[in-house]
């Protein structure tokens, strides 16, 4: 999230209107506020698994700020079809694998266990299927013989901070041509 905010300067076609988090203790909220971005917290825990109720509040929060694009960055929630359909074609997400491989969680451990020679990250449009929307960009890193999931995650995160801002710039300008970094 911070990499995205920091990239939106000068002639960038997008500007951050709000940083929304589902965890009040997340360090990103404080960092966004320090950069002059309005912040909101919509904690999912009080809804006790009622995704529709959570999404109703989240949607109202987003509607107040009227974003043109929603960029997910560590917002680890699975959304209902209703929410996704409402914001369709305006949501992008970053995932720590080279999709379509390793959708879901534990991507780095799974890539290492499978003996992959490379791993990476993918920015994709959010659609009704989990981690399955059109790919807007990918960045690759080698998997080292002595890699741990944590070491691989650290290298992938460096690429996420390069890839996501590059994809956002294009997406905000209406260009959905995939960005490929290595």
From TrEMBL:
<comment type="similarity">
    <text>Belongs to the GART family.</text>
</comment>
<dbReference type="Pfam" id="PF00551">
    <property type="entry name" value="Formyl_trans_N"/>
</dbReference>
<feature type="active site" description="Proton donor">
    <location>
        <position position="95"/>
    </location>
</feature>
<protein>
    <recommendedName>
        <fullName>Phosphoribosylglycinamide formyltransferase</fullName>
        <ecNumber>2.1.2.2</ecNumber>
    </recommendedName>
</protein>
<comment type="pathway">
    <text>Purine metabolism; IMP biosynthesis via de novo pathway; N(2)-formyl-N(1)-(5-phospho-D-ribosyl)glycinamide from N(1)-(5-phospho-D-ribosyl)glycinamide (10-formyl THF route): step 1/1.</text>
</comment>
<feature type="domain" description="Formyl transferase N-terminal">
    <location>
        <begin position="9"/>
        <end position="168"/>
    </location>
</feature>
<keyword id="KW-0808">Transferase</keyword>
<feature type="binding site">
    <location>
        <position position="93"/>
    </location>
    <ligand>
        <name>(6R)-10-formyltetrahydrofolate</name>
    </ligand>
</feature>
<dbReference type="GO" id="GO:0005829">
    <property type="term" value="C:cytosol"/>
</dbReference>
<comment type="function">
    <text>Catalyzes the transfer of a formyl group from 10-formyltetrahydrofolate to 5-phospho-ribosyl-glycinamide (GAR), producing 5-phospho-ribosyl-N-formylglycinamide (FGAR) and tetrahydrofolate.</text>
</comment>
<dbReference type="GO" id="GO:0006189">
    <property type="term" value="P:'de novo' IMP biosynthetic process"/>
</dbReference>
<keyword id="KW-0658">Purine biosynthesis</keyword>
<dbReference type="InterPro" id="IPR004607">
    <property type="entry name" value="GART"/>
</dbReference>
<feature type="binding site">
    <location>
        <position position="51"/>
    </location>
    <ligand>
        <name>(6R)-10-formyltetrahydrofolate</name>
    </ligand>
</feature>
<dbReference type="InterPro" id="IPR036477">
    <property type="entry name" value="Formyl_transf_N_sf"/>
</dbReference>
<dbReference type="InterPro" id="IPR002376">
    <property type="entry name" value="Formyl_transf_N"/>
</dbReference>
<feature type="site" description="Raises pKa of active site His">
    <location>
        <position position="131"/>
    </location>
</feature>
<dbReference type="GO" id="GO:0004644">
    <property type="term" value="F:phosphoribosylglycinamide formyltransferase activity"/>
</dbReference>
């Amino acid at each position: 999230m911070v990499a995205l905010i920091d990239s939106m300067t000068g002639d960038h076609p997008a500007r951050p209107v709000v940083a929304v988090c589902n965890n009040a203790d997340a360090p990103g909220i404080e960092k966004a506020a320090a950069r002059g971005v309005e912040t909101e917290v919509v904690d999912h825990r009080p809804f006790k698994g009622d995704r529709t109720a959570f999404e109703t509040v989240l949607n109202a929060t987003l509607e107040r700020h009227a974003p043109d694009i929603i960029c997910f960055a560590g917002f680890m929630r699975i959304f209902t079809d209703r929410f996704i359909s409402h914001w369709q074609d305006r949501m992008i997400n970053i995932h720590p694998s080279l999709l379509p491989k390793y959708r879901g969680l534990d991507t780095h451990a799974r890539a290492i266990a499978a003996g992959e020679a490379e791993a990476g990250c993918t920015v994709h449009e959010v659609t009704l299927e989990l981690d399955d929307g059109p790919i807007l960009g990918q960045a690759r890193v080698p998997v080292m013989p002595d890699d741990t999931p944590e070491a691989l995650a650290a290298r992938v995160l460096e690429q996420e901070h390069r890839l996501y801002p590059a994809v956002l710039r294009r997406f905000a300008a209406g260009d959905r041509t995939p960005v490929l970094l290595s």
